[in-house]
Each structure stands twice: as structure tokens, then as C-alpha cells.
Design a protein that fits this description.
The chain is mainly β. It is about 10% helix and about 50% strand.
């Protein structure tokens, strides 16, 4: 009986230590702060097939710190460069970045980058979600022209088998833009996997729970 009580006490202590460790893991740690994400392509489309525009898109920016708390809505960085490679197919698109086409001099950058939560059960996070706030763009399908803004544009980073979060994929499923001007209907957006790397290199950015 005495040995059974000791074994039970040890199991209880181990469980408490596991819970405590998970509870204390409130901070996310990045391997680097400067990043680039590339979609090849990002597709802008009208759900009733009025147009489908595909463009290669590059976003660059930085996180404020290499660590940040898991607090919903926290401002964690900025997107400071947004570029579209031309020509696109099926039409054209331009970010309001101060340099593209007729939009030279008009810029909506920098865009805020906010932490929006995670999926999975601590300490085993399956993915981390970020949003880019107020990106602005103009599109032309050849038969219509429109300018749009999105309140928040989401990206998701998936967890690698080794336990870190590999920023080697990002998604933009379900994004709908709000029309500011023009005849084009509001486009939805979907992206291929977007490679997220340390700026200027091919090194994947990783994120761990500490």
C-alpha cells in the first residue's frame, strides 16, 4: 500500500509539472525578425467567373522583437514592402506601394502585422495565425477597373514534425476585398503555398514556444 501511495504521488507530481510547464509557455520565439513571403501566384477572382487574375506577389517586413506573448490582436510587426510582378495573367493588379504604375506616389504602407492566435493544444501548437491590416490594391480585368481594401488579410504558418513552426507556407483562402472605387466587383483571393524566409536568403523562419 505504501509503495502504491508513493507511485501515485510521483504520477501526480509529474502531471502537475506538465501542466505548469504548458501554462508557463506564454511566449513565442522567432528565429529571425526580417522576413519575405512570396506567392507564385496569388489568384484574385470573382466568384461568378467575371475575371480571374493571377500575379506573383512578394511581401517584406519585420517583426518588432524576436519574442512576443500569445495575446490576440497584438501588433507584432509591419509589412514595409509589397510588390506584384508584371505582367499578371487574366488582367493586372497593383498594390498601393508608391511605386507601381499609375499609383506612383500613393502608398498605404506600412501595413500592420498582428498575432491572431494558434490552433492545436498547448504545448503542441499545430499552426499560428497572423493578419495584415488594411492592404490596398487596384485591379484591372481588361473590361473593368476597381480599387479595393481588406480589413485584415490572414496568413497561417504550419507546425513542422520537429516541433517548430516552419514559416515555409502561408495561405490566403477566403479573403474578400472591400471596393473603394471603380466598376469591378469585389475579388476574393486564394494563394498557393507562400514561402516565408529570412529577408535576402532562402532560410526558413521558424517559431517556437518558450
Amino acid at each position: 500500500m505504501r509503495h502504491a501511495k508513493i507511485a501515485y504521488a510521483l504520477l501526480t507530481l509529474a502531471a502537475l509539472m506538465t501542466v505548469t510547464g504548458s501554462a508557463l509557455a506564454r511566449t513565442l520565439s522567432l528565429s529571425n525578425t526580417n522576413f519575405r513571403v512570396v506567392w507564385t501566384p496569388l489568384t484574385l477572382y470573382e466568384p461568378f467567373n467575371f475575371f480571374t487574375i493571377r500575379c506573383n506577389v512578394t511581401l517584406e517586413g519585420s517583426f518588432h522583437e524576436r519574442t512576443f506573448a500569445k495575446v490576440f490582436g497584438t501588433l507584432v510587426g509591419y509589412v514595409t514592402r509589397a510588390a506584384i510582378s508584371h505582367p499578371c495573367t487574366g488582367g493586372e493588379a497593383w498594390f498601393w506601394n508608391g511605386t507601381e504604375g499609375a499609383l506612383t506616389g500613393a502608398s498605404s504602407l506600412p501595413w500592420h502585422l498582428r498575432y491572431e492566435g494558434f490552433s492545436g493544444t498547448l504545448p503542441s501548437i499545430a499552426s499560428v495565425s497572423l493578419t495584415i491590416t488594411r492592404p490596398k490594391q487596384t485591379i484591372s480585368s481588361g473590361i473593368c477597373l476597381g480599387t479595393f481594401e481588406k480589413a485584415s488579410w490572414g496568413m497561417v504558418a504550419s507546425r513542422s514534425p520537429g516541433g517548430t513552426l516552419n514559416w515555409s507556407s502561408a495561405t490566403t483562402g477566403g479573403v474578400t476585398w472591400t471596393r473603394l472605387a471603380g466598376e469591378c466587383p469585389e475579388p476574393a483571393a486564394r494563394g498557393t503555398s507562400g514561402t516565408v524566409t529570412l529577408l535576402g536568403t532562402t532560410t526558413a523562419i521558424t517559431l517556437t514556444l518558450i
